[in-house]
Structure prediction request, 219 residues.
Amino acid sequence: MEVKGNLILTITNPDVARIKIQFNKSDDENLAYQSHPKVDKKAMTADNTIVLKDAAGGFPVNSELVVMKWRFQTTDESFIPLNVVCWPTVNPDGTCSVNCDFELVNTSLELQNVVITVPLPHGSHAPVIGSCDGDYSVDGRRSILEWRIPVIDAGNRTGSLEFTTNGRDANDFFPVLVAFTSPKSYAGVEVVAVSDVESGAAVPHSFETKFVAEKYEIV
Prediction:
């Protein structure tokens, strides 16, 4: 599994271009952080502070600037945010019973607009749904079943979907694709304060987190 992230700074007022940013982050050993070349790396690493090396300079105005990047890599499946299992069973009568379930592994996250897409055999009949936590839709033209769950969080950690359709090969139901958004950063990056470099006075700011699944497959 690989997760990449950026901390992007946008300043719209030139009067507050000389700032420092205090942030929180995870100290997980699988996370690697990298600062912009003009950012003080020592301050970022030791103090969780984004500030320019040149104290007399200011950040660019009306321009998006990536001030910090991070990357998480692991082969340990216990770190995946959402565990999805798809288990097709081929029946003697030419049908296939498919059991799918999900479990939120990282309960500190809140996943929104979750869509789990299961391929269907080409030319198969509309699946017969046995049970479904959430909603589903079938796209016959694309031969897929989309399982939708509005929110998966600590209070709604697990769910299942069962359906039957005609099919003789379990491999026809893979790869399963997962898509979601989240208002929380996987790396736990969060801006906690922004202040003027010289006076230390607080600078009004806003902070937005966007975490999306770019490629999430079960094969």
In short: The CA atoms of residues 18 and 58 lie 4 Å apart. The longest helix spans residues 41-47. The first strand starts at residue 2 and ends at 10. The chain is about 5% helix and 50% strand.
